[in-house]
């Protein structure tokens, strides 16, 4: 009867692990608590199904285990039972899908008053760009990337000249204000991932992708890359700081614009951590 | 049961079923090496797949050691780590699971189960194996080239996959693409064989609705593979052009390490669509044969007809069809048009319904059964547990918005290992314990098998169940090391050590299984022709192991479905498919 015992332990143990283990998501810092709620609904529905199926198996093995003289029942089909189970499952699926799609609609509908922030990924560095006084981000192209113009900002576009450029530094966001995060890459796929924000999105060279969020609490959070981008993938880290409005404005005033950076005329090379900069053949 | 089949009385005797002396092999080479016998080809496929699978097993050990004890093995640098995960993934999905289910079990079981003498195109079948072997050798060769195998991740996403600073960017990626191209060509030869044999090679009385579910699973998976692999094929050819001829199918303007590359205008996301148009059906190409096989194992070892046979067949076919319209659920955060999310989330969750029906029907087959806790039954129970677990976490990842926080984390790794790694492999083990007696004439050792089962099942669950929670914490997948973060508690590291230790033990237990396979060849108990008292045709062959041509002078005639177990009034608790009579599901019984 070891099998029966093990099946029961798996069903009960999995639930206990879920409830008692210390491993759970990190406290949320954005408006996407809807996502967490949908996830919890999904945990409950799937958890009930899992426990029910495993315990049913355990019962069958215990009750209908072979002993001399036992003969199995003969029942090729039972339409009502099969139909009922299918309908019940469909209901459970709807119970998960409906809130899921509802929240997805919110996720992809950017509020019209959202501020814009651009995040640019490259191996293995995060850079950021904020609109300047004109409130608009200038055009940018991978083709325009050069040592003194790491984000490829189009110098012919006037709206880009006052853009605030942060290469490899921290990104600051004001708390409580919706922000549309525009994502761009100049080399390979990356993914802008802040676990506390719940939202993430790939960054694709040649395209601008996006998501939006409203930061809901101040603090300092890690940015990680969540799409394999080469040997430095796990080292590609950044920091996002969610500030109060006053702190944000103080920080913003200290940041250089694109024009100021150009004036410094300091050639900026691509930073590569030393231990991963070797060519493939040198190992 | 609706059954419009012929039985032995009302068919015209076909002329072409006689055993032809001419095509029997005449030398050792044509009998055992360049063999055209599907059964020999099956064993060749299986041995090659298991051998390359061992490489993937060792690679998984190495990466688990790196995750639990970073730096403990100094030769595992970031380059090698990414090479290991890439090769582990590709080997397991393509070269082990696909090859073993379709090339191995498909070749052995299809002709025997449908009552044919062999596959319909034996020569193409032989070529299929040799091309598969060539593909494996090309893949293995990449370990020995300058720069080593590719480390682009098994998904081979461009632009990274073909850039020179990616591990294996020099030769590894080229050999990987060439190997996949060869694999697809070889598979097409085998796949056409399986499909045509099922459609045209069935013996008298073997209607489609009398086929064992094993054949339905393998047949449907093969049809899907024939439709899905071309997407992989063209993606590989296009990427090879990008890498070698300077085209830009998948390559936009790129600045690599401060240097403008000579590419422009291509779309990296187009590759993802092609890849997953193949890649998602691929999941079911592995799962459907497992579904089919486990149905037969459960039915045989519970001495009960599979519950809801027709529903099971339709569920297989519907899952196969739906799996072609769900591919972009792998791409919810890829940056594709977000409105696709509605469509793909809906199709993905709809697929849960036929899948759940299969689970219910397996469980209901056990209900009021006569359950023999043989090794195949134990592995089948373990399959249901792990498959249900992995299938349910699929509802998280398929439900577009729930996927957003979990995507690209260890949750995904845990999910797909549970559902398409552990679960199908448990079926493979169960199937080997079940059919080994037919293949060799001897039983596998029971004590070794029990030990192997318990370590593998419990170990695999202990590895992958807690791993979901590592992802829930937020640990991304494909990280050489997590390093310093503000959100990963130190206890996650302890969990990683635990997972690695269990993984090492589970891996070692597979050596016991391999030893059992070899040891029992000579020392196993004599099995006889039908040790499980099963109904399907492969157990009714005149010789065990079956000889070339399978059936001796006369092909079997099929009178009933494959699941006449414990029929009321029958003397035995099983009635073979080729036994006439009025009991059970025969034409007379339903008329």
From TrEMBL, chain A:
- Please tell me whether the keyword Transcription regulation is annotated for this protein: no
Where would you find this protein in the cell?
Answer: Membrane
What is the reaction catalyzed? 4 Fe(II)-[cytochrome c] + O2 + 8 H(+)(in) = 4 Fe(III)-[cytochrome c] + 2 H2O + 4 H(+)(out)
- Write out the transmembrane intervals: 41-62, 83-104
- Topologically, how does it sit relative to the membrane? Multi-pass membrane protein
InterPro entries, per the entry? CcO_II, CcO_II-like_C, Copper_CuA, Cupredoxin, Cyt_c_oxidase_su2_TM_sf
Q: Keywords, A to Z?
A: Copper, Electron transport, Membrane, Metal-binding, Translocase, Transmembrane, Transmembrane helix, Transport
Q: Where is the Cytochrome oxidase subunit II copper A binding domain?
A: 112-254
Q: Which Pfam families match?
A: COX2
EC number, UniProt record: 7.1.1.9
Similarity comment text for this entry: Belongs to the cytochrome c oxidase subunit 2 family.
User: What protein name applies here?
Assistant: cytochrome-c oxidase
Name the source organism.
Mycoplana rhizolycopersici
UniProtKB/TrEMBL annotation, chain B:
Annotated GO MF terms: oxidoreductase activity
Q: In which pathway does it act?
A: Energy metabolism; oxidative phosphorylation
Q: Does the keyword Metal-binding apply?
A: yes
Task: Note the topology in the membrane.
Answer: Multi-pass membrane protein
- The catalytic activity of this protein is classed by the Enzyme Commission as 7.1.1.9
Q: Name the enzyme's class.
A: translocase
Q: Which UniProt keywords apply?
A: Cell membrane, Copper, Electron transport, Heme, Iron, Membrane, Metal-binding, Oxidoreductase, Respiratory chain, Translocase, Transmembrane, Transmembrane helix, Transport
Listed under catalytic activity are: 4 Fe(II)-[cytochrome c] + O2 + 8 H(+)(in) = 4 Fe(III)-[cytochrome c] + 2 H2O + 4 H(+)(out)
Q: Where are the transmembrane segments?
A: 40-62, 82-110, 130-151, 171-192, 213-241, 283-299, 311-333, 339-361, 373-397, 409-433, 453-475, 495-519
Q: Where in the cell is it found?
A: Cell membrane; Membrane
Coiled-coil region(s): none
**InterPro entries, per the entry:** Cyt_c_oxase-like_su1_dom (IPR023616), Cyt_c_oxase-like_su1_sf (IPR036927), Cyt_C_Oxase_1 (IPR000883), Cyt_c_Oxase_su1_BS (IPR023615), Cyt_c_oxidase_su1_bac (IPR014241)
Q: Which Pfam families match?
A: COX1 (PF00115)
According to the entry, every stretch annotated as the Cytochrome oxidase subunit I profile domain falls at 23-559
Which Gene3D superfamilies does the UniProt entry name for this protein? Cytochrome c oxidase-like, subunit I domain
PANTHER family (alphabetical) = CYTOCHROME C OXIDASE SUBUNIT 1 (PTHR10422:SF18)
Q: Its biological function?
A: Cytochrome c oxidase is the component of the respiratory chain that catalyzes the reduction of oxygen to water. Subunits 1-3 form the functional core of the enzyme complex. CO I is the catalytic subunit of the enzyme. Electrons originating in cytochrome c are transferred via the copper A center of subunit 2 and heme A of subunit 1 to the bimetallic center formed by heme A3 and copper B.
The family annotation for this protein states: Belongs to the heme-copper respiratory oxidase family.
Report the protein name in the record: Cytochrome c oxidase subunit 1
């Amino acid at each position: 009867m070891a099998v029966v015992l093990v099946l029961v332990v798996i069903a009960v143990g999995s639930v206990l692990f879920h409830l008692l283990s210390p491993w759970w998501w990190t406290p949320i810092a954005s408006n996407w608590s809807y996502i967490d709620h949908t996830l919890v609904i999904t945990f409950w529905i799937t958890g009930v199904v899992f426990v029910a199926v495993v315990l049913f198996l355990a019962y069958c093995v215990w009750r209908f285990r072979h002993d001399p003289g036992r003969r199995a029942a003969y029942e090729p089909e039972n339409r009502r039972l099969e139909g009922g189970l299918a309908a019940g499952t469909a209901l459970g699926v709807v119970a998960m899908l409906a809130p899921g799609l509802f929240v997805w609609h919110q996720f992809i509908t950017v509020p019209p008053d959202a501020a814009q922030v651009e995040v640019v990924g490259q191996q293995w560095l995060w850079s950021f760009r904020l609109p300047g006084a004109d409130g608009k981000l200038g055009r940018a192209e991978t083709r325009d990337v050069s040592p003194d113009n790491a984000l490829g900002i189009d110098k012919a576009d006037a709206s880009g000249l006052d853009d605030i450029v942060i290469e490899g530094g921290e990104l600051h966001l004001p708390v409580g204000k919706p922000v549309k995060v525009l994502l761009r890459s100049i080399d390979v796929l990356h993914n802008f991932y802040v676990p506390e924000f719940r939202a993430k999105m790939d960054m694709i060279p040649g395209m601008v992708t996006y998501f939006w969020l409203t930061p809901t609490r101040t603090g300092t959070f890690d940015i990680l890359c969540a799409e394999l981008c080469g040997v430095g993938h796990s080292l590609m880290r950044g920091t996002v700081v969610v500030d109060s409005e006053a702190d944000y404005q103080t920080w913003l005033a200290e940041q250089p614009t694109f024009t100021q950076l150009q004036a410094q005329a300091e050639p900026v090379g691509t930073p590569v951590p030393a231990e991963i900069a070797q060519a493939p053949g040198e190992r | 049961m609706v059954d419009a089949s012929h039985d032995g009385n009302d068919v015209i005797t076909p002329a072409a079923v006689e055993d032809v002396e001419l095509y029997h092999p005449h030398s050792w080479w044509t009998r055992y090496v360049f063999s055209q016998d599907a059964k020999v080809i099956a064993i060749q496929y299986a041995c090659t797949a298991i051998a390359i699978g061992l490489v993937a097993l060792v690679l998984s050990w190495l990466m688990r050691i790196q995750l639990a004890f970073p730096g403990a093995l100094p030769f595992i640098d970031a380059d090698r780590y990414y090479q290991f995960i890439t090769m582990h993934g590709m080997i397991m999905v393509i070269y082990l699971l696909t090859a073993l289910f379709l090339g191995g079990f498909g070749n052995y079981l299809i002709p025997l189960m449908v009552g044919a003498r062999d596959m319909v195109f034996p020569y193409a079948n032989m070529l299929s194996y040799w091309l598969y072997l060539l593909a494996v050798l090309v893949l293995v060769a990449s370990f020995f080239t300058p720069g080593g195998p590719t480390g682009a991740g098994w998904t081979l996403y461009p632009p990274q996959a073909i850039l020179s600073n990616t591990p294996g960017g020099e030769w590894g990626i080229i050999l990987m693409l060439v190997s996949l191209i060869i694999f697809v060509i070889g598979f097409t030869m085998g796949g056409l064989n399986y499909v045509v044999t099922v459609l045209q090679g069935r013996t008298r009385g073997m209607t489609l609705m009398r086929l064992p579910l094993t054949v339905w699973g393998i047949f449907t998976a093969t049809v899907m593979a024939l439709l899905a692999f071309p997407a992989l094929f063209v993606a590989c050819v296009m990427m090879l052009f990008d890498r070698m001829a300077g085209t830009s199918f998948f390559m936009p303007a790129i600045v690599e390490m401060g240097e403008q590359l000579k590419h422009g205008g291509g779309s990296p996301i187009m590759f993802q669509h092609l890849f997953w148009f193949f890649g998602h059906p691929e999941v079911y190409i592995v799962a459907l044969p497992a579904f089919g096989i486990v149905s037969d194992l459960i039915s045989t070892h519970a001495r009960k007809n599979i519950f809801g046979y027709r529903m099971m067949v339709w569920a297989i076919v519907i899952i196969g069809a739906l799996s072609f319209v769900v591919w972009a659920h792998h791409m919810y955060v890829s940056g594709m048009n977000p409105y696709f999310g509605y469509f793909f989330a809906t199709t993905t969750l709809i697929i849960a319904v036929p899948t759940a029906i299969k689970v219910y029907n397996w469980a209901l087959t056990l209900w009021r059964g006569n359950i023999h806790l043989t090794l195949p039954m134990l592995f089948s129970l373990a399959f249901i547990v792990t498959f249900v677990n992995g299938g349910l976490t699929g509802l998280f990842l398929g439900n577009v918005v729930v996927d957003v926080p979990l995507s690209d984390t260890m949750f995904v790794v845990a999910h797909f290992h549970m559902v398409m790694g552990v679960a199908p492999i448990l079926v493979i083990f169960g199937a080997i314990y079940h059919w080994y007696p037919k293949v060799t004439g001897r039983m596998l050792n029971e004590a070794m098998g029990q030990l192997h089962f318990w370590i593998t099942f419990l170990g695999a669950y202990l590895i992958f169940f807690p791993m979901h929670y590592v992802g829930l914490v937020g640990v991304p997948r494909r990280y050489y090391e997590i390093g310093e973060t503000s959100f990963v508690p130190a206890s996650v590291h302890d969990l990683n050590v635990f997972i690695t230790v269990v993984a090492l033990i589970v891996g070692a237990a597979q050596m016991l299984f391999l030893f059992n396979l070899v040891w029992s060849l000579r020392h196993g108990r004599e099995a006889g022709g039908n040790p499980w008292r099963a109904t399907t045709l492969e157990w009714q062959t005149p010789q065990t192991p079956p000889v070339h041509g399978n059936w001796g002078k006369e092909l079997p005639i099929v009178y009933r479905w494959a699941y006449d177990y414990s029929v009321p009034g029958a003397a035995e608790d099983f009635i073979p498919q080729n036994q006439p009579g009025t009991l059970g599901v025969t034409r007379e019984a339903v008329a």
